[in-house]
Amino acid sequence: KQEVTQIPAALSVPEGENLVLNCSFTDSAIYNLQWFRQDPGKGLTSLLLIQSSQREQTSGRLNASLDKSSGRSTLYIAASQPGDSATYLCAVKGNTDKLIFGTGTRLQVFP
Amino acid sequence: DTAVSQTPKYLVTQMGNDKSIKCEQNLGHDTMYWYKQDSKKFLKIMFSYNNKELIINETVPNRFSPKSPDKAHLNLHINSLELGDSAVYFCASSQGRDSPRAFFGQGTRLTVV
């Protein structure tokens, strides 16, 4: 049974810092991995998607890497800003066409 | 235009009532989902429909009955609501297993009192 864990559960940093959010999964037989952002009281916004054959994806100040064999992904946020404050969720898709979500990392970036 | 839209956004109701949440997607996707986010913010799949057919049913009580009148709509009907049903329910869609990206609605916050 696939289990997805995210560390840390919460993170509070000053503006400008570079951040690393971690995601680990127990079953390496995944189809893809997706990082989402959730703002309080809002839906999920897809940030980055990495196919199982890829090693990383980049979008602006965000970079996500995938090491499928070790069951790990990291989301790197460069030069963090207060607007980055949100909960970040990783989710893996296996062969059953459903997303298995991690426990989330609640990020607060203060000025 | 909103890609995946859910109504209502908020729903407060008493125990024992029956309620429905509607979801529509205008992306032309074949697959739609319902996810539940509990009080600890953990998201878990409930149902998946592909072209109006049930694909995934994740051990959800049979008080929950999804209905897909066409592939652009997946509604969730809940009978005999219980306090533990309080959660945020998210609808999502994708172009099926081979499509990488899932698109989520804004969520429906259900509170059972």
Write up what this structure looks like.
The complex is a heterodimer of chains A (111) and B (113). Chain A has 111 residues and is an all-beta fold. Chain A has strands at 4-7, 10-14, 19-25, 32-38, 44-51, 56-59, 62-67, 72-77, 86-93, 99-101, 105-110. In chain A, the strands form 2 sheets. In chain A, strands 2, 4, 5, 9, 10 and 11 form a 6-stranded mixed sheet that branches. The N and C termini of chain A lie far apart (41 Å). The model of chain A has no long low-confidence stretch (mean pLDDT 93). Chain B has 113 residues and is mostly beta strands. Helices cover 0% and strands 56% of the residues of chain B. In chain B, strands 2, 4, 5, 6, 9, 10 and 11 form a 7-stranded mixed sheet that branches. A 4-stranded antiparallel sheet of chain B has the order 1-3-8-7, with no helix packed on it. The chains are: A mainly beta (111), B mainly beta (113). At the A-B interface, β4, β5, β9 and β10 of A face β4, β5 and β10 of B.
